[in-house]
Design a protein that fits this description.
186 residues, 4-stranded antiparallel β-sheet
């Protein structure tokens, strides 16, 4: 599903907003492993994953850590960078061949000052991101690695067909060896 169809389905945008979003966006193809933006970048865009998989990552003690996965039909960005013009502490990488639509945030923010629908879209996107990261934080604090693994499978079984076990282990906060043990348990 492309961005316009997604916005029409999720937010019930009208023809004027459809034309607006169509006029400001650009869709690009990325190959598996392509870095879309690096940690430390100053971002001005929101990213909509039409097809493929991506991840947000950061470096800790020179080690690459997966923070979050994004499947098709999801929006992503480094909020602190886009909203507050700060360098992003995370990077964004395609994990499979991906088609991603890039939305510049400045014209969206400007229109949101006068258009209630656009303002509501921004609020819902931010709220959805907050809920997702809150759920991730809760799981990291209160669930075992085994429970986190099974939650990840239940929520996004396709992910395992496209993402390396190293990235999954990193996301779960465990070693690849521990992940192998968990996968072997029934």
């Amino acid at each position: 599903m492309n961005l316009i169809n997604y916005l029409k389905q999720e937010y019930k945008i009208g023809e004027e907003l459809e034309i607006f979003f169509d006029s400001i966006t650009e869709t690009k193809q990325y190959q598996k492993g392509d870095i879309i933006f690096e940690p430390g970048s100053y971002l001005r865009h929101i990213y909509f994953i039409e097809d493929g998989f991506a991840r947000i990552f950061y470096f800790k003690n020179k080690k690459d850590v997966t923070h979050y996965f994004f499947a098709p039909q999801t929006l992503s960005t480094a909020v602190e960078s886009v909203m507050y013009h700060k360098p992003s502490y995370v990077g964004f990488q395609a994990l499979a061949p991906s088609r991603i639509t890039i939305l510049p945030f400045a014209p969206i923010k400007e229109l949101a000052e006068t258009d209630i629908t656009v303002n509501q879209i921004i609020q819902k996107i931010l709220l959805d991101m907050l809920i997702a990261f809150s759920k991730r934080f809760y799981r990291s604090q209160f669930e075992t690695a085994h429970e986190r693994y099974h939650s990840l499978i239940a929520e996004n079984p396709e992910l395992f067909q496209h993402v390396s076990l190293g990235h999954i282990a990193s996301y779960l906060g465990i070693s690849q060896q521990t992940l192998s043990v968990i996968r072997g348990m029934k």
